[in-house]
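Lab notebook, bench 4. Still working through the backlog of constructs that have no structural model yet. Next entry is a single chain of 1044 residues. Request: give me the structure tokens for it.
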Amino acid sequence: MDFNDEQKQAIEHTGSPLLITAGPGSGKTAVITERIKFMLKNGLNPSEILCLTFSEKAAEELRIRLEQDDNVNDISDMQISTYHSFCRKVLFDNTLATGLGMKKGIIDRATFLVWGVQNIDLIGFDEHIEIKNNASDVIEKMVDGISVFNDELVTPDELQDYVDKKLAGVNAIKDVEEADYIHLLDNLVRIYKMYTQFKESNDVMDFDDLIVKTFNLFEDENKQSVLQQIQQKYKHVLIDEFQDNNFAQFSLVRKIVTEGGITVVGDADQNIYRFQGAYTQIFNDFKESYPDFKEIFLHRNYRNPESVIKLSSELLTQDTYRIPPNRELEAQKDDDQLVNVIDCSSEFAQAEFVKNKIIEIMKKNTDYTFSDFAILSRKQKDGLNAAQILISEGIPVRYVGKSDLRSSPSAKLLFAFLRVIANPMNSLIPINGILREYGIFEQNISKINQESKIRARGKSEGDYGYDVLSDLKVNDLSQKTELKEIFEMIQEFTLLAKDNLPSTTIYKIMRNKTDIYKKIANDDSIEHFIERSILNDVLDSAYNYEKIQSEPTIPDFLKFIDQLESFDVETKRGAKGSNSVQVSTIHQSKGLEFKTVFVIDVAQGRIPGRYTQKPFFVPLELAKGVKPAAEPKEEFIREERRLLYVAMTRAIDHLYITYPTQYENRVRANKPSPFIDGLAITSNEYVTFDKYASTASVGETPTYDAVEVIKNKTVDEAVKHLTNSQYESAIQKIIDLAHIDHFQKNKTIDGFDVRDMLTTNASHELEGRLNGTVSTSLKFGKQNLSFSKVNNFVSCPKKFWYENVLNALPANQEATPLYKGGLFHKIVENASIKQRDEGEIEDKDTLIAQVAESWDSTQYLSSSVKKENQDKKSLDHALDSYQKWTSANPNTVLELEMRFSTHIGGYKFNGVIDRVDQTPEGDYVLIDYKTGHSTPKKVPDSLQLNLYCMAIQEKFGKFPTLASFFYVEEPEGGQWFHYNVTPEKVAEVKLKLEEHVDAISKDQFDATPGFACKWCSYRDICEEAMWYYEWWTYTRRKIKTYQR
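Model written out:
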């Protein structure tokens, strides 16, 4: 790739702090990548570079860019992460210094909101906070207020002291308005302190804590060794999307970087995260913190048509507080495409215009895919109409909207079981849902309902649905066998819930005890991807609920879900990377680009939204750095303008800005946004202005939503007939759907001819799928590999497919072997570091004592106490074995937990070598610890050890002379399995690895059923495994019969 002069300067700058102001489409990601490569080439080690990004996605993309660059060697030791991930690692690595257990992990904002609602009566709000039916709203404002103070590193005690002094008259209150605010802060500090105490007593943290506690650790004068280690480790810190950093995050960076080793990349014009504490003055703070900085402006735009750049730049000039850059953006594309501004007659017309335009562009451009389109709106709900009409046209959509954990058929059935468990005395409605799902006839369900009503008559409690299902004493009732089985299943689930956590109960119901998960686990369609995602969301919600509840139960979990649904929580409704139109908020499009972008609802009252003053801000007396450039309302307008600017600059080829002049249920006509009104859109030289009115006749046809209701019901009926192999009935429903589709397109049923659709031939794709010449399976793609992944592929390619392609839930929820092994590795790693750096070998008792100090019983909630005690005791022997060996070992510790990356067959392999020693003769020896009992048979053929040998050869220039497995739990004499390494053997095993990689790249994921299926985590959903297991059971039974 060729770089312009400014990009080259940014890549190769040395000697002072660097500020890169990078406009949209200016190639900043490529510059960041090349700058890292430049630093590596000029002497920095990967482990000496810290890259901080705004999102996990951005971190992953940067890592992939570097890993796939042939000129970059191993970067596995480079920290490329978000602030939160970086801080979590710092805190986890320094638990002795912080005293933080971090055993229960992080709770998200949604869980905190629910906690607030559940405890609202305990907070003790006074008369200045009125609680009626507004509990959710009050708590949401309070939670956001706590974040405001966290972002500026204001502690609960500092806030309490400030409020106390104001209320006591020590510091004067200026007026009534300030007095009201002080009382509001007095209430805020109550929930602030209560929440802080709750987190400490329950050993949980939120995302704000990760930043604040890491800063406090760096600030603590008694623990400066931790900060000094970080400062010595990282010679250069690189920050992407700098404009989105808040005060606390930048304060953290200033602790780490005291001199010149820092590069920040950002654009003040793309600052759109004020609600997360971002502030435009951060660039001034950087310049004041590092006065010898160098600033480079990347002003050449390679993404957008010139009209988009000119119009969006003109938009920014409306901001009178804005400090313009030294040079405005310059278009590098030779493109005369104008920006399209469309005045639509209604919301429906707007959605219809978008749909028609997508179809039109797809027909004209054969190289387009649906993922080349984005529909962006200010709020998530504003994109719903567009998403619905696209779906009705058969266009795949990735809609990012409000989470509804009970929206899928699979989740509905799961929650039906949970509701019966929670309250069997009032369970007729969920029982009805369960009976329908399990094929009970409507006549039988009606009879059960009628009998329940008879029994409940005159009774004050209960609906008697469970009672009727238990005895089935109903006249003329058929399917009694099936109904009895259903009741026994519900009874089993009820007993299961008594002895287990909600998360375990949910996992077992959906994964082991029913076919809820099985039905969607072998299908890689987008619909089933969404179904699996929603079930995973339910399970994650159960885990989060258990973090805040000391005695979790199913009834309380259902209340938790109800409260969670009252908040505005988003979830992705579509497969990652799927060929779908993205319908999302503008915020979610940050950092992305699309060939065609529709920015919808750019209307008055939508962009900018209606200003509502935030209830909380940091008073100037407490402010530590953030001072707004303008009044709050003006700051809001400025950010809304920048938001539109970001949306506009996502477009590569076509930009459409639309607004409806009439909204549903609103009498008065609407106007375009004042932002675009100020651009003189009807006469602007960079704009093509047009009007669009829907072809639908208002008042003569059912509304769009009404037609959708009919359509959705017909789809459900068609699917039900197909599921029951009732093909004639299914065909009738499909014909009805074609009728509906014709009506939606033409607003009349005239002209519909069923013969047009019945003359259709079977698809060639179907023929290919039936005869095996065409595959529609999900692909593994260019993901990174590891020994464990390839080893799974070798044992069974289909198991590899379930784990790494389909990402299916395993049958067993437990992960105790991983926990025990991880704890062993952590203890011996710390001991080995001490041995290497200080020459001190810890004794057995010291090592074993660390097991008791670090042991986390919550990892064994799904296991027996006996299993936990066995694992804990086994570590005593394992550590004793390690201590005896390392005490007598004549070699020098060279590397511990050595991360590596190497390329085989076009794929990058990542891994971690437990330990590398150097002998007195200068040779290398590698050791891999094993905490299991499954010892190897042919060590020289080990894929793992030979892969590790390749990594050592790449790093040190020669192969190790010895590679060993150390089975620390085995008795003496059976612990070591050695392999005298030869280049010939390594080359032989490398060829085998290349064969496996080739098969993976060709998506050869056929099952290899065998005896190991008995222990496979996917045996209950894999058809081949189930067939083998049935055959094996039958054969064994026949053999036993013959032997008798």
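Notes after review: The mean pLDDT is 85. The first strand starts at residue 18 and ends at 22. Flag for follow-up if needed.
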